Amino acid sequence: MTATSRGAFIVIEGLDRSGKSTQAAILQSRLQGPEQSTTKAVLIKFPDRTTTIGKMIDAYLRSQSEFDDHAIHLLFSANRWELASTIYAHLAAGTTVIADRYAFSGIAFSARKGLSYDWCRAPDIGLPAPDLTLFLNVEPGVARTRGGYGEERYETEDVQRSVRVVFERIGEEMKTDGQGQWVEIDASREKDLVARNIWRVVEPLSRGVASSLRKLWERDLTT
């Protein structure tokens, strides 16, 4: 970490049961290992179910309450904005931030319901933009065989397939607009191999980033 660098902002996205939480924890541990003695890393999970808004989202995901599709989308976005200042503070202090899901999940899960893609994206314009987004790609049929599948509202194979299509659109948009790296990782493989493939992409960022932090879809902020 140099005097002028900041922490890296890394987002891990993917379908349900693609291994996001497992790989995020492995990555955090790797970043804080003895060979990375200058690195600090924190893990943030979205939704953050500990806040007042997060508790409302948790009840919805567990099918214990109902919301209009527009309303729940805005609650997910508000939950991310709750932690935006925390993300900025960590990065400025030189700490790497790993996010397990982010705005891209919000767009993908809401747009697949038939809500306007642009409308779904709008509430998250201006959030801190990740330096790297890792999309853990796994066939919905493979994800369905993993432990815990089906415990929450969106964990059905049909939903996951349509969500995947929206994620593909987001990935292409991110690459075209220069919104930071979007890297697809084959998450159907053995856990340790997936972790090694992730590390190969993350390692160049592990000691800090010299460039200033961008904002998501920042060109929309000036139009």
From TrEMBL:
GO CC annotations, alphabetized:
cytosol; nucleus
Q: Where in the numbering of this chain does the Thymidylate kinase-like domain appear? A: 12-198
Could you tell me which pathway this protein works in? Pyrimidine metabolism; dTTP biosynthesis
Which superkingdom is the protein from?
Eukaryota
* GO biological process entries: dTDP biosynthetic process; dTTP biosynthetic process; dUDP biosynthetic process
Known Gene3D superfamilies for this protein? P-loop containing nucleotide triphosphate hydrolases (3.40.50.300)
Q: Does the keyword ATP-binding apply?
A: yes
Looking up InterPro entries in the UniProt record yields: P-loop_NTPase, Thymidylate_kin-like_dom, Thymidylate_kinase
Give one GO term, molecular function aspect: ATP binding
**Keywords assigned by UniProt?**
ATP-binding, Kinase, Nucleotide biosynthesis, Nucleotide-binding, Transferase
Q: What is its EC number?
A: 2.7.4.9
Q: Which family does it belong to?
A: Belongs to the thymidylate kinase family.
Protein name, UniProt field: Thymidylate kinase
Q: Record the organism.
A: Pisolithus tinctorius Marx 270
